[in-house]
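Annex B. Sample input.
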Amino acid sequence: MRNTILARRYAKALFSLGKQEEKTEEYSEKLSAIAALFDDEEAGLRDALTNPLYPLDVRQRVMTKIAENVQADTMLSGFLVLVVDKNRAAILPEIADELRTMTDKDRNISHGIVISAVALKKDMLAKVQTTLEKLTGTQVLLETKIDPSIIGGIVAKVGDLVLDGSIRTQLNGLKESIKGRD
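Annex B, continued. Sample output.
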C-alpha cells in the first residue's frame, strides 16, 4: 500500500511536469520502457539501482546512462536521478504504471479485456469495442484472451465494468435457480 501511495505521488509530479512541457505521453512511454528493463532479471538493472552496496554516485551514473539511452530530456533525466537519490528506484515500475494510468485518463482512454472461448473475428471484436466505448464514454483499447473454460460467449471488462455473457455463468445461474427450488 505504501509503495502505491509513493508511486502515485512521484507519477503525479512527473505528470504535472509533463503537462507543462506537453510531453506526458512521451514521459509515460519512456518510463514504461525503463520499467520493462527494470523487471528483466537478466539485465540486472534493479540490483544496479537499488543495491545499497553500490555507492550513490555509481547508481546515479547508471540512471543517467539509462536516461541517455532512452533519449530523455533534461526534465525526465532529472526526475530519474531524483528517484535514485531518494532511494525510490525500487518502485519505478509502479511509478510507470501510475503515470500510464494518469496519461490515459487525461487522453480519455480506457483499457479493457475481452475473454472468449475461441478467437473472435475482427468485425466482432470491433462491435464489442464500439459497444464498450458507448457504455464507458471513453476510447477503449482492448486486449483479447482465450479461455475455453467459459464454454461460449464472451466476458468483457473495462475498469470496474464487467459484462459477462459466458455460457459458464449462465449455466451457474441456472444451477443456482434449480437449487433454490429444492
